[in-house]
Task: inverse folding
């Protein structure tokens, strides 16, 4: 905002004691309350003008507007500054998402009142509770590509998985004019949707994405370890209503042992599975 090196900026309001107390107090309070995740509503900035050290400024003030980039904001007819630079700095730094209130069980509610007398309640409300994660509701992101270097797909897949994708798969398809192409499909949680979408748009030649709501049924899972004559192998176990229905030796463990001991990997797979069921 000041268009100069940060070392040369002299803060006025933001450097005041009350602003420092606001920021430090917020962080300390969140830590004491054990808050793991923060959701913010859309931000009401107010409108009109505010007087500061630099004179008469429009609402939101330049520093506030800069801090609120990429955050959903709005303004009503209230002729007051409803979001200050300090408040904007706190909420934009600490909040994980903005928008509608998530599905949650509210356990505690707190209010902070401002000094302005305006036509609506001049309050900040904070609700503390718990969110029940529904792992069965996810997003499916898809795009069709017919003009990308096929060597790039390996890199794109690795980057998607490392950024939170639940699954990534490629499907060969035929597009218009009978051109061979590849459909990229990515399953992802709502929380990681934007990050995954940005990767696909930046790293591939696609011009757009399709995004679907998807429901899935998943087994309960756990990891066990089987001791063999060649070493320990982890085993992935799938349970349905508490009953074991699937058992799969961990491929990377089997691959490593098969290479070191020079034994067929299919033999190791079979031995691990047999020993697991025998011990179970």
Result:
């Amino acid at each position: 905002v000041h268009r100069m090196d940060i070392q040369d900026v002299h803060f006025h309001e933001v450097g005041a004691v009350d602003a420092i107390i606001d920021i430090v107090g917020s962080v300390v309070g969140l830590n004491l309350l054990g808050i793991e995740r923060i959701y913010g509503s859309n931000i009401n900035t107010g409108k009109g003008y505010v007087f500061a050290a630099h004179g008469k400024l429009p609402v939101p003030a330049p520093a506030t507007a800069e801090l609120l980039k990429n955050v959903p904001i709005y303004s009503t007819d209230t002729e007051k500054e409803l979001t200050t630079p300090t408040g904007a700095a706190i909420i934009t730094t600490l909040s994980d998402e903005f928008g509608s209130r998530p599905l949650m069980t509210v356990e505690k509610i707190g209010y902070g009142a401002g000094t302005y007398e305006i036509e609506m309640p001049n309050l900040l409300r904070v609700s503390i509770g718990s969110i029940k994660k529904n792992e069965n509701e996810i997003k499916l992101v898809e795009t069709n590509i017919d003009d990308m270097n096929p060597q790039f797909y390996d890199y794109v897949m690795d980057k998607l998985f490392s950024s939170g994708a639940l699954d990534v798969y490629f499907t060969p398809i035929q597009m218009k004019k009978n051109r061979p192409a590849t459909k990229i499909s990515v399953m992802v949680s709502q929380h990681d949707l934007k990050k995954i979408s940005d990767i696909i748009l930046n790293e591939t030649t696609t011009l757009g994405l399709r995004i679907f709501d998807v429901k899935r049924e998943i087994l309960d899972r756990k990891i066990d370890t089987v001791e063999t004559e060649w070493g320990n192998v982890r085993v992935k176990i799938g349970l349905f209503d508490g009953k074991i229905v699937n058992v799969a030796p961990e491929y990377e463990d089997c691959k490593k042992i098969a290479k070191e001991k020079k034994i067929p990997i299919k033999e190791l797979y079979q031995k691990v599975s047999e020993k697991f069921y025998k011990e179970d």
